[in-house]
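User: Fold both of these, please.

Assistant: Here is the first one.
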Amino acid sequence: MVGNLLPDFAKNISEKDYAAEVMEGVRLHRFIDAYTDTHPIVRQSKKRISSHRRRFSPILVDIFYDHFLALHWDKYSTAPLLDSTQTYYAHLLKADMPLPTRLSESIQRMPKIELLYSYRTLEGIAHAVDRVATRIRFKNNLYGGVEELENNFTALEADFHPFFEQLQEAVKTYQERL
């Protein structure tokens, strides 16, 4: 689980620095990113973002898809979302290894604010988008980007379901090849 988050917080991840299980998570994360970045449905979703924020469409679509996953969690998992997120946090908090400072801080903060569970609401997504906007080091117009979801909700939701089902199949095939 740590490996699934690590690439979002560190670029140069060395095999010698982490256990094999962590590196499996890193490789899976990279596979999912590459698959997602080149998928035609995701490209379609990015085009739905207004020209005003198109530069940030990869970030917005990623966060919006997280919203749809949380919103429709029961379609993709038998465990309730809240139980799943709490189990995930518990596993992350048990990680006994050196981690980048930002990742370690995020792991500590996530359960306190119920970050992943909050993604089921527009307010939670608005907060996530605005939090990313504040971390960008240059002046940007990402703040308030939840309006892109509000303006394109039905179309983005319709994009999400077939994409996510195809992603699940791709991950299954990827893991079978290991």
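And the second sequence with its predicted structure:
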Amino acid sequence: MKHLLRPLLIVALATSARTLPARAQALCSYDQCALRLHRGSLVQGLGGTRVARLRGWFSAPRIDLLENAGDSTRQHYLAFRALYHQGAKFRTASLALVMATAITMLTNPHANHYYVPLGLAVVSIPVGNAGYERTIEAWDHLQKAMWFYNRDLPRSP
């Protein structure tokens, strides 16, 4: 009988694990579980337990706490990820244009016409600016997701 109960218990725990973060938020007080930004990381609680590292050129961090939270939190978190990825694409394209400018200038330094490198440099400015704007908008959505997450935490007695 014992050998039958163990697999059933494992299956029951595995299927209920998906809903655990939302319930864990309800059991956690504000002081223990509130999210905040600290030195390039998302930390939780007074102790500052790191939840996610927020540095990265290409992809936004996956933050399970925000992804499994309430609708408003999840909506802003998903917007953060989408905008962060768009910003990364624009920043990468801008960097590629700047590198192409440098390569073009260095391969033919005595040319009398610099139209191609000048054009590449000029195009890199609005592309980089678009990436910067999307990244700033992404950070705004992350701040809103954190606010909604923290708002739903029960206050300490």
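Confidence is low (pLDDT under 50) at residues 8-24.
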